Amino acid sequence: MSTAPQAVDVAPQPVDVATARPRVRPLRWVAGAVLLVLAAQFAWFLVTNPRFAWPVVGTYLFDPNILRGLGMSLLLTVIGMVLGSLLGVLLAAGRLSGFTPVAWACGVYVAVFRGVPPLVQLIFWFNLGYLLPRISLGVPFGPTFVSWPTNSVISSLTAAIIGLTLHEAAYMAEIVRAGILAVDGGQRDAARAMGFTAGQSFVKVVLPQAMRVIVPPTGSQFISLLKGTSLVSVIAMADLLYSVQVIYNRTYEIVPLLIVACAWYLAVVTVLSLGQRRLERHFGKGQR
Fold first, then answer.
1. How far apart are CA 163 and CA 121, in angstroms?
2. pTM of the model
3. What residues contact 80, with CB distance under 8 A and at least 6 apart?
4. How far apart are CA 238 and CA 76, in angstroms?
5. CA geometry: angle at 23 spanning 19 and 26, to 5°?
6. Tens digit of each residue's pLDDT (9 = 90 or more) over 233-285
7. Core-most of 53, 97, 122, 255, by most CB within 10 Å?
8. Burial call 162-171: b when 16+ CB within 10 Å, e when fewer
């Protein structure tokens, strides 16, 4: 009498991780080779094309007019960011308040100034004198105490600061509001149970946690505002781009001067990005 062979279970051999080989991924090698070829071709194009006029770029890179324009761009960025952040905090507080008219008014402001392009806002404020020939102070619908010609008050600098500030405030309001709403409501309740006042609970409990959400987009907004200052050149504001345009309108060396502007924008943005990362690590302590 014959019996059928019985199957024998064979345990899989354990894999030694120390001697395991990584998988060969040919597509990655192909993609890396393609990128390397493209990078080499682009570098060759930059070096061998005489129309870039690199000596001209070196001549104007530290030109006094260019540096003054860069300083004006940085000044507009700082002023617009500081004033926009202060106004944005007030708008965020208004949108989070329980008073419906204030919340609605702040919501309308954010919707309007986020919806209208900043270039349009700059041109509008620069031409405010067409709608309002004089700016006056006095009693509403009553006597006027003092007034000034609008064109003497709204200069290129004033129009640039107003336009950039109002535009930036709309975005900062949403960033601050999102950061505050990201903190769990139980944190406020716990702080109040420990005897903190509303102000103390906000400063010591809510704000440090909200900063983890607020800092990254705020840094991005600061960088975006720096690049957005190039728009003020349309109202004859002597920023970096306008200074470059003045020179190449005289020398007709458009591309080399634009490279100078790009180089300075990239340098400043790189420094700001490094600062933003340090702030993110600082406020992200204790959280992966």
1. 6
2. 0.82
3. 161, 164, 165, 168, 225, 229
4. 11
5. 145
6. 999 889 999 999 999 999 999 999 999 999 999 999 999 988 888 877 876 66
7. 122
8. bbbbbbbbbb
